[in-house]
Prior knowledge:
The protein has 23 helices and 14 strands. By secondary structure, the protein is of the alpha/beta class. The longest helix has 20 residues, at 237-256. It binds FE2/S2 (inorganic) cluster (FES) and magnesium ion.
Amino acid sequence: MTDYRDKFRANGKLRSEEWFNNPNNPAMTALYLERYQNNGFTPQELQSGRPVIGIAQSGSELTPCNKIHLFLADRIKAGIRDAGGIPIEFPIHPLHENGKRPTAALDRNLAYLGLVEILHGYPLDGVVLTTGCDKTTPAMLMGAATMDLPAIALSGGPMLDGWWKGELAGSGTIIWESRRLLAEGVIDYDEFISRACASAPSLGHCNTMGTASTMNALAEALGMSLPGCAAIPAPFRERMGMAYETGKRIVDMVHEDLTPSKIMTRDAFLNAIRVATALGGSTNAPPHIQAIARHVGVELNIQDWQDFGFDVPLLVNMQPAGEFLGERFFRAGGVPAVMGELARADLLNTDVMTASGKSLGENLEGIRSADTAVIRSVADPMRENAGFLVLSGNLFDSALMKSSVISKDFRKRFLSRKGDENALEARAIVFDGPEHYHAMLNDPDLNVDENCVLFIRGTGCVGFPGSAEVVNMQPPDALIKQGITHLPTVGDGRQSGTSESPSILNASPESAVGGGLAYLQNGDRVRLDLNARTLNAMVAPDEWQRRIADWTAPVLEHQTPWEELYREKVGQLADGGCLDHATKYQKIRNTLPRDSH
Ligand code: FES
Ligand code: MG
């Protein structure tokens, strides 16, 4: 049997050797070896100095978006073996965006905790993170960041493009469109379901530039995947090849001791922010990226999204900000092509190190868009200044607005009335959570008209719990039938990354902890000023103070023990919605856990 010690001992003892080859505690070593034999590994193999590589398996029938990883695992293992490593596959807590109630966002931190405990407590020297559905990517990058063990992300890839009656049908985006058509009476319930099913034609995650495609693209933009990984559609043969190469590469990363903290630097995060704008990426990206940054120990704040991302142009013509879906994005060159276009315009720091072992600049050499209908150049973009605006005022310290989805019609209808195309004054309609919204929206007594802004509160991390994707509220049916398909909406929750609604969301602090939205009342006047980046309730200061003094915090009803624990520990969306106490644990691979017997 080949002895790999010389090769992998360049950086000292492998972590796994503490388990499999520890003469100071022979009973313990024997207990590990005798039982890992039942995986088919021989004691000689486990003591040959090969790195043990975990495969963090996110696919299951509870997370169908990632089910492809159950098949890709064979190719990952082949790559790990061919490079001299020993693969060990293990499951992570399921995180399915559509299936988990009350929201998969509640479980992101639970999967993170589970992964940290696995990486820290088991004999692993490196890990392949199998990413895909929305929260699977941030949960795993957060866990790898806390541990700081060599790690590489492998996206499962998006589904094939969906089609309905000769037109592209994109994940999620078709739901929001169909919801309006149903309210207008244009389609019935059965057609609604058929349209949705048509948008999901194969294995893979959402085929729009929703949260899943955004977060996989940003994992690659951060340098945590091999170049070109994010965009390959799940069923394509290239996806299997990428799984194999990723497996091979992680073994060398262990040899090089190339850890997440060496890749995910502040410069890498600023690159990711710029890429997020160029993609027209999801409004969920800021909290997830904030969370990853905090766990890896990089200073990043919500204002950085506006300071570094706002004036970047939208380059990618993909739903919901544009027309196309994942297959065309892949053929146009995917993330390397987007980054290649940004780098040519000097919008990226190309010195940063990546999982390939090369700098970003080396990875991108000579790479440009292969189809300018899908990935445009910085000189000829889809639109200028397409990043997130960070708003503030007496209703919140910060909230986000995705400017790439503000349509001309929306601008004309709501923002131009007073001759100032960036401001509006309106009457507030306030809902306490999504159930209240659904129950009340069509009540004629609410008197919702086109001079209203819809607010929803109680939907943040603590309030919901987990923060709900509900801020993209649609207007009452009667208004939709008059052709008013959107009203401005504001909330302390999130919205789907596949939504084309220019909502003001992720308001922090949330109402449940006493944020300003808690004091807003139905009928209050509010003023939005996009030039000043403010949204304020126009309520007299003494009246506002009186409401604050009279406020009592809502009684939170926990349905599970995790909800209670989560609410106790979680922070606000502006800070990534992390378990705040967890962010002090960094580079914990340097602390070896005690022997179990
Ligand atoms: Fe899983 Fe969109 S619901 S990727
Ligand atoms: Mg969603």
